[in-house]
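Researcher: I'd like a structural prediction for the single chain below. Treat it as a standalone chain; there are no partners to consider.
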Amino acid sequence: MEKRLLRTLPSLASEPECYLIYDKAVAPFAAQLLAGGAFRGSLALSISDAGKTMDTVLDICRYLMESGATRQALVVALGGGTLTDMAGFAAAIYKRGIRYANIPTTLLAQVDAGIGGKTGVNLDGYKNMIGAFRQPEWVWLWPVVLSTLPAREFRCGLAELLKTFLVADASLYASAVHFFAASSSNMPVFEDESWEMVSPSSNSAFSEDRTPFSDSPSSKLPVSEDELMDWVYRAAEIKAGITERDLYETGERRKLNLGHTFAHAIEYVASQRGDDIRHGEAVSMGIILAARLSEASLAERLAADFAACGLPVACPYPMEALVEAMNRDKKGEAEGVRFVLLRRIGETEEKVLRPEELLRLL
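Model: Treating it as a single chain, here is the predicted structure.
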């Protein structure tokens, strides 16, 4: 997989048939690709997490069928992680599997969601309950697409980037925190600076229809394109290497789930309450909760690091609500819920906890 992380778009002229599936939000970039004449057709979708369902995947399959796509077709997905997850899943099941490739357009997708072959959709509000493992032919990390990201989306990707270094390389993690903390002043600040300090029993941070972050487009990246892409490639290569060695998540790959058991529960509770918390924000909060299960002083350090980088660190929901959601999560087991914890930065361990233990510990 590491060889499939590309810095330039491969020539598509030799492909017998290519189809572009893209998010309408990145239509200008799609137009640039379509102008080359390599695609037989394209499908534009309005992407949202609420629309990450089998219905959308079937729409993609229906489009391919009506376009006459054969088993030799290559589907190219242009968009964020939600789009690449669905296009990849459609490719995995259309005619029992055709090839696909990703051009991720968010920081989160470039360092995490667009890499590794996890495809799928949500079911009844629960994250990625239906899906398949299917590796993309290649992933093109296109720098220019990041220049249009809203500050909030940039931070969401930053949470996953830091997570990758947290589980794999203590030195890279420390360097990344230093770099992005120094750069965070170049991004718009929280609309509500107090929201990350909300007590677990309060939901006031989401009152009056306010979102926790500014969602307006940033006029420029908080760092130079070259500097940012250097960090992106490092994180992407780490994830690609791990997933190449453990595609089906039976061992080493599980450490990439650090913070995600909590994060998925946070996202579910937020959706049920009508709150606006995005995946990267939930991952940031989830990592801090996982660190609290690991070691108190480590949790304090990570909370300070993440806050310095402009990330949310305190979950606004009571643990009882998260436990209820976790019991339905796909990581649940008969004896409890599996968590990835940190022994120290760069080294993880797994632990299965029963709900009552979780409530006692946190």
